[in-house]
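Chapter review: from sequence to fold.
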Amino acid sequence: MTVFVDENIPEHVAEGFNILQIPEGLKSGYPIVVKCIPTVFGRGAKDVEWIPTLGKEACVITQDVSIGRRKHEQELYRKHGIGMFYLRGSSRKQGLSV
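The token string follows.
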């Protein structure tokens, strides 16, 4: 499985998650790789461009809770079987504190 961290979350969070996941993958025999969307698809890539390429064995971690208001993106995530994790900061202005 591959977990993608959206560009609205700092890249070092993806790197840290990946490092933490390596021993668990070795222990369980089910490796999970964590990648940053801008590293793979380029900074500013449109969601509608990269969502269809992820495949059913993918999840996305994002702070973009507005996806729920963008029906076409919701449909793309569902159509392609992509899991979603939403992280929220204490406020919209502060975002996440790493």
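Two observations follow directly from the output. Helices lie at 11-28, 37-41, 47-50, 71-79. Residues 23 and 31 are 9 Å apart (CA to CA).
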